[in-house]
Amino acid sequence: MKLFIVIFFCLVYQLKYLCNSVEASFPSVLINGVEHETFPISRGDETRILREDARIPKTRRNKELPPAQYTWGGLYPRDTATREVKSLDGIWNFRLSPKDDPDKGFREEWYSAPLASSGDVIAMAVPSSYNDVTQDKDLRDHVGWAWYDTFFMTPRRWLEDGERVLVRLGSVHYSCVVYVNGVAITAHEGGHLPVLADVTLAVKPADQANLLTVAVNNVLTNETIPQGEIQYKTDETMYPPGYFIQYYDFDFFNYAGIHRPVLLYSTPQSYIDDITVVTDATGVLNFTIDYVAAAGVTDLSCSVDVFDANMSSVAHADACQGTITISNPQLWWPYLMDPKPGYLYTLRASIKAADGSLVDQYPIRVGLRALSWGATGISLNGKPLYIRGCGKHEDSDIRGKGFDPALVVKDFSLLKWLGANAFRTSHYPYAEEIMDQADAEGIMVIDESPAVNLRTFDETLASRHSEVMRELVRRDKNRPAVISWSLANEPRSYQAAATSYFAEVSAVTKLADPTRPVTSALSQDFNSDNAAPSLDVIWVNRYYSWYSDTGHLELVQQQVVTDLTRWYNKYNKPVGVSEYGADAVPGLHMDPAYTWSEEYQMQLFLGNFAAFDELRGSSVVFMGEMFWNFADFMTQQGTGRAGGNKKGVFTRSRQPKPTSFLVRDRYLNLASGKQSPQESCRWFKSTP
Ligand code: GCB
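# GCB complex -> structure
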């Protein structure tokens, strides 16, 4: 048994901060004996939120920085015998900092009292993107700081029992500072991953309301992931003084705000910090429980109980680290690979005091499965996998990227209706609640980082990117649905610097999790790309007859086959198509097929289907097909987008376009093992 004791560094540091502000000197934090860099936002200056660009006023002074606090977001807050969760979701107060005075909220200390006392506020839904909930163009297109606040009460028993009190925000895009009762508790850079604030020392007695303030910034620069750029329009004959825009070249709207649930929760002072599980297909389950012991506490011990889906106990072990064997294991299988896909056990970890009393308890869902990959492809539980999937977005009307459980249920219902067995979290990590559903429904996930359309490659970005990968892996490492880590989407990997960049980020990811292949969705030519050598399997995005040879549907099959064969021959690694597609305006019909019509989208899919079948019948190890996109989604305004990207096989409100029926026909045929799955669509192949 390995006892992991953490020096209660964060707490001590926090205490110091509460007594007096700390000048910027941010030591590293010892966690489980490993030295971690302190909070990335606090690397000695404040510029990681609104970066070097001198035209944007500095927003925070070093002395105002929150205390150094290493956070990976923590285990998802759950009610257990020893923990309690309260939702803080609802309607909060909200105000924008003026675009031309981003510093205002910090200068006027809007966090020190309710926002409503320092000016006008509007109602804001949490979780939701703020952009589309009003009729205000300035709110939709805002660039800079936005301020949220609400009140919460701390349950009396948490305080009486001396519990830790934490606030966890599932995702705040892009960066945020979290205040409780006017004190900056933590800050986080990077949307799509959780933000954890230990507010134990900041909360008031139980009969007094606490003010929770969150300052959110959506500015993207060359050092953020994803990248963007603040561009100044300096010709004052054409633009007002100081005019700037947020430039970004990825193809989805840069929605911002508090995107996922905000939960207040308690844990005991000694608590389970992390659980790691690695399984195989014979019922063997290796586990590690990492806990943090409160100052002065020794002699804690761990135990593990495993329950089947009916919550009957199937195994027990008294150890913090070890191996359990489950007899008659029910394996985790993807949808349509087994009559009972997505079978999950519950592993309940406990830590106990020397007298045997329970200190903390935390359950995770576990799927028993073995994943392997190599020159012959990817297999699960010894059976070869063929990926029938799509790229998606977290995107919907009004909410933008805000979490919505009804939408999650609808999307999984549609994925299964299509016969899909996988999706890629294009182009950022999705909500944990979505990932839970993927585990439970048996839908495999290629788990992608927010590194979309990387434009430059240097050491600063590589270390930010590596940090994001570590946070992502730590959040999702126990999920049976996750079959691969995707480092990036469409990096400009023709640049020479991409070689060492991808080698580094790939190595960091493999170190964090050696049990899954590392990949990326590539868009460069097979000859110019420099990322593939560092990847285990190769996915490429290809838009033949859409972005190249537009209108020439007759070329799709040949071009896809030639291209994928070249990648395979060069690297001898499994290859697949992670994106292909065409925009289709719902209701636009043109026969013979013409770009933007529903017929064109259908024909383009049929051309790709034919190519995939040819590849499957060839010597190429072709591991799967993923169309773009599941549903129409919002983008920034542009002449190439009509009310957003229309490449969905469903509309944005999740209604079917005709192509969805072609996909359903093919995917269900593929799942049942038909060799020519597209044959049933033959009547539609009128052209060419
Ligand atoms: C791509 C990108 C995706 C875009 C898509 C398109 O290659 O990966 O983000 O939305 O093309 O529709 O242009």
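# post-check
The pocket of GCB is lined by residues 251, 427, 489-490, 523, 541, 579, 628, 645, 647 (CB under 6 Å).
The chain has three domains: 67-218+254-267, 271-366, 381-684.
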